[in-house]
């Protein structure tokens, strides 16, 4: 057995490396953007390939299907596997996925013709939630409150489109909160300059989203959402409260870790859906409908690693709770290597 890890600053990578070192596993770091990556994997006799995909990287989103699908054809096991990754950072793909298995998804509609989208708008109860297929942390999510606003949005999606990578100062409150955590002023300046350079590059490379409109039913009276993450045989979760004067919770930084306040029905649904999908690691966002039934908003393979280190424990599949600190990335490794 030999593990290849796509190296990435931050994310799961460092903990995967630490796990391999602690357990004396044979591994190497690779660059999946190299033109000869498949020859490298073959030469090194790699049996397992791991990549913490970055939703904010246009390069990751473009290249990972090529490399990971090709690696699978070489009988190399991949993390994330195909069932976990094919819908990554693609809300439209997730709509079709959830509908195919009968998962409790918030009512979602996609239209590929302007006239169809306008007809739906004219017969729908407002507000509607409009989303681009790409985006995390509430990026590219808009509440359509009037017919005129909806018509303008539809017109734009069927004309010049919208760049999927937000502007540098988009979600400013979230970026300000992150910046305040950096106490070293020199480091803060370097990070800020680096971020603006990276954002400019990403906006240049990012797709212009057009040719479709994706709507979800607005779920009122939700002061928070519930994020449940399933990693193999365990699940853990948090409640995320909405941003001030906003219906969106993702990226707010207002996190509640109290286990007793998390609806076990969301944990059960997350386990069931993950099993039906055949996923290795999936993070589900839930809100409630007017009947207080939990509905899935979307799902993602990855998650902000350090935000969940404060979780006081995890659930097993029988919904029993195991108290104590844990490292999800070690569960990822153990499950993956034992597949």
UniProtKB/TrEMBL annotation:
Q: Which domain of life is it from?
A: Bacteria
**Record domain ATP-grasp fold RimK-type: where:** 209-299
Q: What is this protein called?
A: ATP-grasp fold RimK-type domain-containing protein
InterPro entries given for it? Answer: ATP-grasp_RimK-type, ATP_grasp_subdomain_1
* Molecular function terms from GO: ATP binding; ligase activity, forming carbon-nitrogen bonds
> Membrane-crossing residues?
none
Taxonomic path: Bacteria, Pseudomonadati, Bacteroidota, Flavobacteriia, Flavobacteriales
Entry's Gene Ontology cellular component terms? cytoplasm
- Report the Pfam families cross-referenced here: RimK
